[in-house]
TrEMBL record:
Keywords: Kinase, Transferase. The lineage of its organism: Bacteria, Bacillati, Actinomycetota, Actinomycetes, Propionibacteriales. One of its GO terms (cellular component) is membrane. This is Sensor histidine kinase. It comes from Aeromicrobium fastidiosum. The keyword Kinase applies. The keyword Kinase applies. GO terms for molecular function: phosphorelay sensor kinase activity.
């Protein structure tokens, strides 16, 4: 009997110990935060949900997608998003007729207006009113008016980012057109001259070069997308160098060192080829004898490091500085253009770096982030 009693006590202890351990762990578990902390988290989470739609700009689709989150932020029975004339999305009882005059007053003045149950706060992009946020509530209190104003300011900042992205794309397209106009006449003239020199002496070679020329120009003048992959850019460079070798013969030697893992990296269209052309024009054409151009692309972890180096004549660093600043664009084919586009896409830290001196050749380096959400989304 004593043995049985001892066994029962031991069994009870085995059950009780895990239960006590669970209680002790739960009692010691860190708090999930104060009510204020949780409210802050919920607000930040809601704004994060609304932001992507607003980054597209202000239209009916973006308004409809962001409106539920804006209504959650304001906690009002009725919330609407409008342009300068009419509602783009409306959620809750009421109609545009109820607030038409107040909406016009807010848009014309560029300030929040409240009257009775209604509050209207303007949406502005660079001091230009583009729409409004409308709130209808049983109690249009001063606190709700303040909240509506702050939400409208935050929405305006997202719309400004959308317009900045659109402007950046337009700028890149303009710069790309300028680059094509700058490079094309020089290259076309030299390439056709080289091809013509083989028409009688080596018709088959002339035919092959003409096909290379057609493929190169087809890539260079394509009309879709401001981005490409490094692999595509290198294929275009290979065609370009085949044509230049036809002109220079054994004077031109090319070395390429490419890490396979960076071939899929996305980068601005025609951002490497102009630098190679620059090396040929200013490195080889301006000196007697043979010359070597080395193109490398290495994986450095988060970035792809691309260098174009020649052992040619080199140039005064002040001339390069003037070219990059736009003071002397004729001094370098596309150098300033590529530098400006890299900075536009990735930020000022990603401008090209040029190392040169008279008689010591030139080395141009550019860094390309291997992962960039905005670029990847815009890539073909």
């Amino acid at each position: 009997m004593d043995n049985l009693l001892t066994a029962l006590v031991a069994a009870a202890a085995l059950v009780a110990v895990p239960a006590f351990a669970r209680w002790w762990l739960l009692a010691r578990r860190p708090s999930l935060g104060t009510p204020e902390d949780r409210a802050t988290f919920e607000t930040l989470h809601t704004t994060a949900l609304a932001a992507p739609a607003l980054r597209r700009g202000l239209d009916a689709e973006s308004a409809a997608r962001s409106l539920p989150h804006v209504r959650t932020l304001l906690g009002a029975p009725t919330v609407a998003i409008t342009d300068t004339e009419r509602p783009l999305a409306w959620d809750g009882p009421g109609s545009h007729d109820d607030v038409a005059d107040l909406m016009r007053a807010a848009i014309d003045s560029g300030t929040t207006r409240a009257s009775g149950r209604a509050i209207v706060a303007p949406l502005a992009v660079e001091d230009r009113v583009v729409g409004s946020v409308v709130v209808l509530a049983d109690d249009a209190s001063a606190g709700l008016a303040r909240a509506t104003t702050e939400v409208a300011r935050w929405m305006s900042s997202q719309l400004e980012l959308a317009e900045l992205a659109t402007s950046r794309t337009a700028l890149m397209e303009a710069e790309l057109r300028a680059l094509r106009a700058q490079i094309s006449p020089h290259f076309i003239y030299n390439s056709l001259g080289a091809i013509a020199s083989f028409v009688r002496t080596d018709p088959e070679r002339a035919r092959e070069l003409l096909l290379e020329f057609a493929d190169f120009t087809r890539y260079s003048f394509r009309q879709h997308g401001e981005f490409t992959t490094l692999a595509e850019e290198l294929r275009s460079i290979e065609r370009y160098l085949v044509l230049e070798k036809a002109r220079f013969g054994d004077r031109l030697r090319v070395v390429t060192l490419i890490a396979p893992e960076v071939l899929s990296v996305t980068l601005p269209f025609l951002s490497v080829q102009p630098l190679v052309e620059n090396a040929v024009r200013h490195g080889l054409e301006s000196r007697a004898g043979n010359g070597t151009i080395t193109v490398t692309a290495m994986d450095t972890g988060h970035e792809c490091l691309i260098t174009i180096e020649d052992d040619g004549a080199g140039v005064d660093p002040e001339v390069v500085r003037a070219a990059l600043s736009g003071q002397n664009p004729s001094a370098s084919v596309g150098l300033a253009n590529v530098d400006e586009r890299m900075r536009t896409v990735y930020g000022n830290a990603y401008g090209i770096v040029v190392e040169t001196a008279p008689g010591f050749g030139t080395k141009v380096t550019l860094r390309v982030p291997k992962f960039s959400p905005d670029v990847d989304a815009a890539a073909p």
